[in-house]
Write a structure and sequence with these properties.
By secondary structure, the chain is of the alpha+beta class. The strands form two sheets. The chain has a three-stranded mixed sheet with strand order 2-1-6, covered by helices on one side. A three-stranded antiparallel sheet has the order 4-3-5, with no helix packed on it. The longest helix has 16 residues. The radius of gyration is 21 Å and the shape is elongated.
Length: about 160
């Protein structure tokens, strides 16, 4: 199941990108082509595992599915290739050049508005040593709550064509 390694790599990239923001990640949108060889349900499950204890814990995973499309080298016609892909033109029989469908891209990261990142600067103790500050809060306040529910597949966005 290579979806786990994909989920771990995505989480690492997003964590690095948002490290200085000091806010939790609310949602992450991926664009995945139908020819990318990724099973969305397996990726959603793997994402839940890969985000545990990270800045993305509890974040929603949204997936935009990209149809596989090709252009005929003979007549220039563009069409879906289907799955499994048909890589020759239905009109003239010439081969198709693949235009899209192999994508695996991080499209959007949405940060929680104003909420501190659980392991970021807002969670550190005032003296920087992990001791609680005057409000009784510090770096050692215990574990965070588990994410509520499984990642969500954004069916509404899955019809968005890739250009």
């Amino acid at each position: 199941m290579h979806e786990l390694s994909i989920a771990v790599a995505v989480v690492e990239q997003v964590e690095e990108a948002v490290r200085d923001q000091g806010r939790a990640v609310e949602s992450l949108t991926l664009r995945i082509g139908e020819l990318a060889g990724v099973v969305p349900e397996a990726l959603e499950f793997s994402f839940g595992l890969a985000t545990e204890g990270t800045a993305l814990a509890g974040a929603r995973l949204l997936i935009e599915t990209v149809d596989a499309r090709g252009r005929c080298e003979g007549c220039g016609r563009e069409a879906r290739t289907g799955m499994p892909p048909v890589l020759w033109c239905a009109g003239c029989g010439a081969p198709l050049t693949l235009l899209g469908g192999r994508e695996l891209e991080i499209v959007r990261v949405t940060l929680a508005d104003g909420s501190p990142h659980p392991n970021g600067p807002a969670d550190a103790a005032p003296d920087g040593k992990g001791e609680p500050g005057p409000d009784g809060k510090g770096a050692d306040d215990g574990p965070r709550p588990a994410p509520s529910g499984p990642p969500v597949r954004d069916e509404e966005a899955s019809h968005v064509p890739h250009r």
